[in-house]
Design a protein that fits this description.
The protein starts with a helix and ends in an 8-residue tail after the last helix. The longest helix has 53 residues, at 95-147. 86% of the residues lie in helices and 0% in strands. The protein has helices spanning 3-38, 42-77, 84-91, 95-147. The chain contains 4 helices and no strands. By secondary structure, it is mainly α. The chain is rod-shaped, with a radius of gyration of 26 Å.
Amino acid sequence: MRDDAASIVAGLIHLYGIKLQLLDKLLLSESDKLHYCRSGNQEKVIELINTDSGVIDDIDAADFDIAELETSLASLIGVRLRMLYEVLGENGDAGKLISVRNQALGDIKSLLTERAKLGGMLAAASREIRESIDDLSRLSRLKDADAGDIDTHGR
Protein backbone atom coordinates (compact mmCIF):
# COMPACT_ATOMS: atom_id res chain seq x y z
CA MET A 1 0.00 0.00 0.00
CA ARG A 2 1.31 3.44 -0.87
CA ASP A 3 2.46 5.68 1.96
CA ASP A 4 -0.30 8.24 1.39
CA ALA A 5 -2.98 5.53 1.43
CA ALA A 6 -1.38 3.92 4.49
CA SER A 7 -1.47 7.29 6.25
CA ILE A 8 -5.19 7.65 5.54
CA VAL A 9 -5.81 4.07 6.74
CA ALA A 10 -3.93 4.86 9.97
CA GLY A 11 -6.09 7.96 10.42
CA LEU A 12 -9.23 5.88 9.90
CA ILE A 13 -8.06 3.29 12.42
CA HIS A 14 -7.46 6.09 14.93
CA LEU A 15 -10.90 7.62 14.32
CA TYR A 16 -12.65 4.26 14.55
CA GLY A 17 -10.81 3.70 17.84
CA ILE A 18 -12.25 6.96 19.14
CA LYS A 19 -15.69 5.99 17.87
CA LEU A 20 -15.42 2.59 19.61
CA GLN A 21 -14.62 4.29 22.92
CA LEU A 22 -17.64 6.55 22.51
CA LEU A 23 -19.87 3.63 21.54
CA ASP A 24 -18.67 1.79 24.64
CA LYS A 25 -19.77 4.79 26.74
CA LEU A 26 -23.21 4.66 25.11
CA LEU A 27 -23.49 0.90 25.61
CA LEU A 28 -22.65 1.32 29.30
CA SER A 29 -25.17 4.12 29.54
CA GLU A 30 -27.83 1.92 27.89
CA SER A 31 -27.13 -0.78 30.43
CA ASP A 32 -27.48 1.74 33.25
CA LYS A 33 -30.71 3.11 31.78
CA LEU A 34 -32.17 -0.40 31.54
CA HIS A 35 -31.24 -1.00 35.19
CA TYR A 36 -32.82 2.25 36.36
CA CYS A 37 -35.89 1.68 34.22
CA ARG A 38 -36.38 -1.80 35.71
CA SER A 39 -36.06 -0.33 39.21
CA GLY A 40 -38.62 2.38 38.39
CA ASN A 41 -36.23 5.32 38.51
CA GLN A 42 -37.34 7.10 35.33
CA GLU A 43 -35.82 10.39 36.49
CA LYS A 44 -32.35 8.82 36.39
CA VAL A 45 -33.12 7.38 32.95
CA ILE A 46 -34.01 10.85 31.67
CA GLU A 47 -30.84 12.28 33.22
CA LEU A 48 -28.72 9.65 31.46
CA ILE A 49 -30.49 10.26 28.15
CA ASN A 50 -29.66 13.95 28.44
CA THR A 51 -26.04 13.13 29.27
CA ASP A 52 -25.81 10.91 26.18
CA SER A 53 -26.39 13.84 23.83
CA GLY A 54 -22.79 15.04 24.26
CA VAL A 55 -21.44 11.57 23.48
CA ILE A 56 -23.69 11.34 20.43
CA ASP A 57 -22.41 14.72 19.24
CA ASP A 58 -18.85 13.41 19.58
CA ILE A 59 -19.75 10.29 17.58
CA ASP A 60 -21.29 12.48 14.89
CA ALA A 61 -18.06 14.49 14.70
CA ALA A 62 -15.99 11.30 14.42
CA ASP A 63 -18.34 9.99 11.73
CA PHE A 64 -17.89 13.21 9.78
CA ASP A 65 -14.11 12.89 9.94
CA ILE A 66 -14.31 9.19 9.03
CA ALA A 67 -16.47 9.99 6.00
CA GLU A 68 -13.99 12.60 4.82
CA LEU A 69 -11.07 10.19 5.10
CA GLU A 70 -12.99 7.35 3.47
CA THR A 71 -13.86 9.64 0.56
CA SER A 72 -10.22 10.67 0.25
CA LEU A 73 -9.03 7.07 0.34
CA ALA A 74 -11.58 5.91 -2.20
CA SER A 75 -10.55 8.74 -4.50
CA LEU A 76 -6.86 8.00 -3.99
CA ILE A 77 -7.14 4.32 -4.84
CA GLY A 78 -9.67 4.95 -7.60
CA VAL A 79 -12.76 3.13 -6.37
CA ARG A 80 -16.31 4.15 -5.62
CA LEU A 81 -16.92 4.89 -1.99
CA ARG A 82 -19.44 2.08 -1.60
CA MET A 83 -16.81 -0.39 -2.86
CA LEU A 84 -14.01 0.88 -0.62
CA TYR A 85 -14.10 -1.78 2.08
CA GLU A 86 -14.60 -4.59 -0.39
CA VAL A 87 -11.44 -3.51 -2.24
CA LEU A 88 -9.55 -2.98 1.03
CA GLY A 89 -10.54 -6.48 2.14
CA GLU A 90 -9.04 -7.92 -1.01
CA ASN A 91 -5.82 -5.94 -0.48
CA GLY A 92 -4.98 -7.46 2.89
CA ASP A 93 -3.01 -4.42 4.10
CA ALA A 94 -6.07 -2.91 5.76
CA GLY A 95 -7.03 -5.82 8.03
CA LYS A 96 -6.84 -3.70 11.20
CA LEU A 97 -9.09 -1.03 9.67
CA ILE A 98 -11.65 -3.57 8.56
CA SER A 99 -11.55 -5.18 12.00
CA VAL A 100 -12.18 -1.94 13.94
CA ARG A 101 -14.86 -0.90 11.47
CA ASN A 102 -16.64 -4.25 11.88
CA GLN A 103 -16.36 -3.93 15.65
CA ALA A 104 -17.95 -0.47 15.47
CA LEU A 105 -20.76 -1.83 13.29
CA GLY A 106 -21.32 -4.64 15.81
CA ASP A 107 -21.41 -2.17 18.69
CA ILE A 108 -23.96 -0.05 16.84
CA LYS A 109 -26.12 -3.12 16.28
CA SER A 110 -25.91 -3.96 20.01
CA LEU A 111 -26.71 -0.36 20.89
CA LEU A 112 -29.80 -0.40 18.68
CA THR A 113 -30.97 -3.64 20.31
CA GLU A 114 -30.51 -2.19 23.79
CA ARG A 115 -32.21 1.05 22.74
CA ALA A 116 -35.22 -0.92 21.45
CA LYS A 117 -35.49 -2.73 24.80
CA LEU A 118 -35.34 0.57 26.64
CA GLY A 119 -37.95 2.09 24.34
CA GLY A 120 -40.32 -0.78 25.09
CA MET A 121 -39.75 -0.48 28.82
CA LEU A 122 -40.29 3.28 28.78
CA ALA A 123 -43.47 2.88 26.74
CA ALA A 124 -44.78 0.38 29.32
CA ALA A 125 -43.83 2.74 32.16
CA SER A 126 -45.58 5.58 30.36
CA ARG A 127 -48.76 3.52 30.05
CA GLU A 128 -48.60 2.72 33.78
CA ILE A 129 -48.17 6.39 34.63
CA ARG A 130 -51.07 7.32 32.36
CA GLU A 131 -53.26 4.70 34.06
CA SER A 132 -52.26 6.03 37.50
CA ILE A 133 -53.13 9.57 36.42
CA ASP A 134 -56.52 8.36 35.18
CA ASP A 135 -57.13 6.56 38.49
CA LEU A 136 -56.19 9.68 40.47
CA SER A 137 -58.45 11.81 38.29
CA ARG A 138 -61.37 9.47 38.94
CA LEU A 139 -60.68 9.56 42.67
CA SER A 140 -60.52 13.33 42.57
CA ARG A 141 -63.88 13.50 40.77
CA LEU A 142 -65.40 11.15 43.35
CA LYS A 143 -64.04 13.30 46.16
CA ASP A 144 -65.48 16.44 44.54
CA ALA A 145 -68.85 14.76 44.03
CA ASP A 146 -68.95 13.53 47.63
CA ALA A 147 -67.91 16.93 48.99
CA GLY A 148 -71.03 18.45 47.40
CA ASP A 149 -73.22 16.33 49.74
CA ILE A 150 -71.54 17.59 52.92
CA ASP A 151 -73.09 20.51 54.77
CA THR A 152 -70.06 22.55 55.69
CA HIS A 153 -72.14 25.26 57.46
CA GLY A 154 -73.41 22.98 60.20
CA ARG A 155 -77.10 23.30 59.30
